[in-house]
Predict the 3D structure of the following.
Amino acid sequence: MTLSLGLSAFAVVLALLVVVTLAIGIRTIPQGHVHTVERFGRYDRSLESGLGLIIPYVERIGRRVNIMEQVVEVPSQEAFTRDNAGVRIDAVVFYQVLDAARASYEVSNLQMALLTLTMTNIRTVVGSMDLDQLLSHRDEINERLLRVLDAAAAPWGVKMNRVEIKDILPPADLAGAMARQMKAEREKRASVLEAEGQRQAEILRAEGRKQSAILEAEGRREAAFRDAEARERGAEAEAKATAMVSEAISQGDLAAANFLVAEKYVEAIRAIATAPNQRVVVVPIEASALAGTLGGIAEITRSVFGDPGSAAAGRAGLPPRVPATPPKA
């Protein structure tokens, strides 16, 4: 009876030992994680995500490493630029563990090491740049920091994916000076653009005046040409009329001379009478000379067109007019 109880207790203990051994030897690793296996305290291998087996009592899980991309917040810190301007700067770092063993056994505290490394390199990069360059070349700062941090973290089996500067804050007085400088620069550019616009407007107005003067001169030249042509033709007509009158006079026709004199006489009288600065015109006119002149004109008319009185009477159905017989002496 005692032997049976002893065998039963031994079987129970053995079953419990088997269960505990199986529990220790079978491991489930979640997705995105890697567990390191240590044999007698020394790194042996790494277990990927899924079901893993270790030798109980000989091996154990050493480090549980997250191999997903992780973020480290770099707290705000003060740094000085090359031109001795103090700024407050903060950043974020994105990294990923590629080698779980090196990340576990090459550095004791990975996140603290990355944080310290980032802060010191931020100060180094800021100290090598002027304030204006620091504020306007943020992409260059990110690139330089990423290159330096990636090279420094490579022995730890870590890949630095991105480094982003979140904010750069200059002192309040310096920020006010920068705002005034920006305002002055913008006012300067506005003045330059306004002056440039005025200059272009003056140039365009001058071009317009030039074109107007050219067109006006062209018009005056054309008008002068037309006037000269009209005077030339008038002179030709006058010369032709004078030649015809001269020819008539040379043939003994004095009526043509009387006609020419009468025409000039009448034109002179009309010019005097229609002058704009004259209101009353008193001209001494010899009635006999005027009558003789008009008689010459009548003689020319009758010689060219016939007796106008007879023609008019014939058209009216009346007998022709008989000239009055001068009284005898």
Notes: DSSP finds nine helices and eight strands in the chain. Residues 308-329 have pLDDT under 50 and may be disordered. Strands lie at 26-29, 33-39, 42-47, 50-53, 59-66, 70-80, 86-97, 158-169. Residues 179 and 185 are 10 Å apart (CA to CA).
